[in-house]
Amino acid sequence: MDQPLVVRSSAPGPKPAPCPPARLRRRPPQLLPAVATGSKSRDARVHAQLEAELAAVEGETHECTVRFFGQGLLSLCLVGETAGIPLHREVRVCTLDLCTAQPLLMAEELDPRRRTAFQAEATRRLHHLLETFIQEQGDLDEAESADLRAQPFELDSEQLELAQGQAVFPTRIRTQSRFVNQFFAGGVGPAFSFAELQPYLRPESPLRRLVQPPARPTPGRPPRTGN
User: Could you give the angle at which helices 142-149 and 115-137 cross, rounded to 10 degrees?
Assistant: First the structure.
């Protein structure tokens, strides 16, 4: 049954320090994007972190897609594929704070006082998403449907993806059904708009920058983006 999404206003608190504008470029055949923040040492740390994220993806063929770039944040989706029957596909998402060159771990970004509320709301949204899938398929057997309805929401601290105005938390679906596993191979999970996410964050979280006006570029050196 459809339920309205819960939207709460952002709690007041100190704002995180602004981050200087960064430039994002992709130079073929380079797989990972090149980031220029104005600091060579920080750029090197960002590149090392991206290389580490890519190395953690299993598979022989790799893809990298920039999902979000702005507010001093970079969110990527990394895919690895290994030929075989069936084809093995691994999807990994990562979000980096370009101000510190460190990955954002969602478990550390939550306000401890709001953790239980976030867990409950994320679980509700996941179950709504899976129930919609069950109804749309219409031909899942009872065991498959029961598996999906029993799925817990597990906050994997690294599974934070920013895309199209939303923060998505891909959740590993655990079921015996090969069809269902293949359908969700790319990852699926509850999504929160940037504004909806704010009440659950610690006051100084870099994710609070998502609802702040973008930093103005330095005159004469506008930021560039590219694929």
Answer: 160
